[in-house]
Amino acid sequence: MNNKQLTRIPDGKMIAGVCSGAAEYLGVDVNLLRLILAIFTLFFGTGVLAYALGWLLIPEQGKETSILQDLISKQQQKSQ
Question: Could you tell me if residue 9 is inside a domain?
Answer without folding.
Answer: no
